[in-house]
Amino acid sequence: MILKKKMMFNDFAASRGLRSTRQRDIILDIFLSTHQHVSVEELYLKIKSSNQGIGHATVYRTLKLFTEAGLAREILLHDGQTRYEHVMTGEHHDHLVCTGCNSIVEFEDETIEKLQKEIAARHGFQIKSHKMEIYGLCSICRK
Amino acid sequence: MILKKKMMFNDFAASRGLRSTRQRDIILDIFLSTHQHVSVEELYLKIKSSNQGIGHATVYRTLKLFTEAGLAREILLHDGQTRYEHVMTGEHHDHLVCTGCNSIVEFEDETIEKLQKEIAARHGFQIKSHKMEIYGLCSICRK
DNA sequence: CTTGCTGCAAACAGTTTGCAGAACT
DNA sequence: AGTTCTGCAAACTGTTTGCAGCAAG
After folding, report:
1. Out of 3.30.1490.190, 3.60.20.10, 3.10.180.10, 3.40.630.10, which CATH number does the structure's domain A94-142 have?
2. Which residue in A79, A132, A141, A143 has the most chain B C-beta atoms within 10 A of its own C-beta, making it the best mutation to test that interface?
3. Considering the entire predicted model, what is its pTM?
């Protein structure tokens, strides 16, 4: 899985004539080792603690590249930071966000996906992507 | 409809001991007269053009109040600005966003709403709200 | 050697906040 | 009169950009 993603990025880099650099390797490694939904800041700190001297800007720029390469995806939750999640090819998931403890549970529902396609078609839209977040309290925070 | 919203805000203001001010009246009027999904900046400019001397900060502060009062709702699309939409009580709608021309079409789907409830229940979540956006190209931009 | 990449700091955009004066009640 | 609200400007936060030096090809 991780290897596959590294290859994805290598292919992308090659096709674009991008260079392979120490920083990109490190950022990719650490990104792949994170849980879902890392914010740029979280990733930056994680990188900083293990490898000195990688700047904010590089992390931002590199995550944009990962997004273009198709192995990461930007998500906007309600916390004023851009977060990135891993793209699992062929798989799509949505989020249940707990407003109590900010935990995030992922889910997938084929019926919803199908309905979305129907709705889009009805309005003449050609779907590129979608996102759905359900906000509420998780079982722990309800108590 | 508009009258009802004004009353909603008056009730809210009364219950909180908030004062009724010229600015809040103007901002409410103009907010209610806008199409859906106004950004703060758009609203600010609209207000500025018809009524001199209302500051940015007041618009921000007042929109937060409207949100607390339950007559507006924050939405985050992919353009780096917070937008506000009107809350139609009892009604919920989601968005089809055209990535070509940024137009937004609203829709509602009961089956999806029902499925969301089921999914939340399955994970022990108590739903507070949700949002769903489908991104794609509208019929005009597809050509 | 050429060109792309990085780190830094400065620039930016959107939003929030502190405060003195204005305006409700 | 007593507070709350406003406008302004300054502060903040997350993100982007310009540029000189560094490094990959």
Report:
1. 3.30.1490.190
2. A132
3. 0.76
The full set of domain ranges for chain A reads 2-86, 94-142
What φ, ψ does residue A107 adopt, rounded to 5°?
Answer: -150, 170
Taking C1' of C8 and every protein CA, the nearest residue is A55
Instruction: Give the minimum alpha-carbon distance from B51 to chain A in angstroms, rounded to a whole number.
Output: 31
Q: Which amino acid is at B129?
A: S
Rounded Cα gap, residues B112 and A111, in angstroms: 8
d(CA A44, CA A119): 39
Tokens at B96, concatenated: 């089809």
Nearest to B142 among A109, A116, A126 (CB): A126
pLDDT digits (tens, 9 = 90+) for B29-70: 999 999 778 999 999 999 998 877 899 999 999 999 999 999
Using a 7 Å cut-off to protein CB atoms, list the covered nucleotides of chain D.
4-9, 13-18, 23-25
- CATH number for B2-86: choose from 3.90.940.10, 1.10.10.10, 3.30.365.10, 1.10.260.40: 1.10.10.10
